[in-house]
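Running co-folding for glutamine.
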Amino acid sequence: MTDWTIESMLKWAADDFRQKGIDSPRLDAELLLAQAIGTTRMQLILDAKRPLVADELARFRDFVKRRRNREPVAYIRGDREFYGRTFRVDARVLVPRPETEHLVEVALSRTSSRSMSLRALDLCTGSGCVAITIAKERPTSVVVATDISRGALDVARENALRLGAYNVAFEEADLFPPPAKFDLVVSNPPYIASAEIDTLAPEVAKHEPRIALDGGVDGLDFVRRIVEHSVNILDVGGVLAIEIGDGDARRAAALFESAFGDVRVQRDYGQVERIVSGALRNAGADA
Ligand code: GLN
């Protein structure tokens, strides 16, 4: 009888994923096997020779089948790391991306002078990763987060509870909640041009919620609405920080210029211009 060990199952799955053209076959196999048997990737290496029992094998085979169908690893596992914390995710929300960690960094560093009493608003919160991270990093702040999707809000609320982020409130809204004043508006809105969505990797195009991706004809529908409306709810000097799509930096920065000063564009780990931010000017002041 062949022993189906951790090592041999990892090799089998990685080879299978590689053949199917999946980007990171070995890493995916490890992430899925670790989850299937309730351990860590590190422990897989230490226990490489251990044979798997029947229900571990069954669970892993099911995970491999789903991954072959290009379902994102994060949905299969049911979680994803973001800014050093583990967030629950499923097909109701966008998978948190490493580049979005830059959005959090920009938002935190540009508001450090008011960190004690920060009032922050996160639009299109999805899994809640941005809002909850800000709430955890700034425990004395008050954070409001909105999404139009009830399913997403359920995921976000569960994440806030599990991570102990008690200073964040979630509201169902098409972007903006009822009027209030904020020191920070932050958003990773849908920013893919509608016609481009089907050209993206199947993990994204076939599995992630379209409502979390689709930014309209030129991808900037939400950016425009957010910039326009933020002017009314930020205090003077308040910061707006938005994640944008590859190639959108110039157009997005131009939208900021009419009401925001000190407009900055920051790059992500892949050197793509990814985050645009600015501070609300005094309406009477010179540009
Ligand atoms: N704010 C969430 C994230 O950054 C969801 C963004 C979205 O759904 N467009 O992952």
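Result summary
The pocket of glutamine is lined by residues 94, 96, 100, 124-127, 129-130, 188-190, 212 (CB under 6 Å).
The two ends are 77 Å apart (CA to CA).
Job closed.
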